[in-house]
Amino acid sequence: MMDKAKIGTCWLDGCSGCHMSLLDMDESIVAVLEQADIVFGPLVDAQEWPEGVDVAIIEGAVSSQDDLKLAKTARARSKFVIALGDCAVTGNVPSMRNGIPTRALLERIYVQGANPSDGVPTDGVPALLKNAVPLQEAIKVDLHVPGCPPKPGAILMVLSELLEGRVPDLGSKLRFG
Ligand code: SF4
Residue 77, class by beta-carbon neighbours within 10 Å (0-12 exposed, 13-18 middle, 19+ buried)? Predict the structure, then answer.
């Protein structure tokens, strides 16, 4: 019996909607899981992106030092990296903050928008990068799957093709928004 492929997933600066779409494959996910194990992701109790991942599925833009570190680790430990969804592909919603200095942004959220006496937290909040950028500006991406979120059928087709050893041709399934 052949070893199962290994899939890792993560979301960076995203809303989790792309992961919801992944789960919206409903029972088709069973067919995927017959060929592959999900070894890292929000539904998996793993603390660190493991070595030897075959397919990395990454949602969200790269907005913080933590995002950058995770994206680089996933890239280094995975054979094939998918940018899933418009935030990962173009920056989309997270990049709307670009152009606003990060200090002004944090003041607006934590001081003006919350409790002025608490100030901007310095502990437990990842340091923001100057801009939220698409995944391809941080690491090499092998396949872009746009959509906000991408349709479950498109994600299923991509995974099915990869697990059969073919590079998916998104063709008519390609759409933004
Ligand atoms: S592409 Fe859309 S659904 Fe996916 S993380 Fe971004 S905002 Fe959410």
Answer: middle
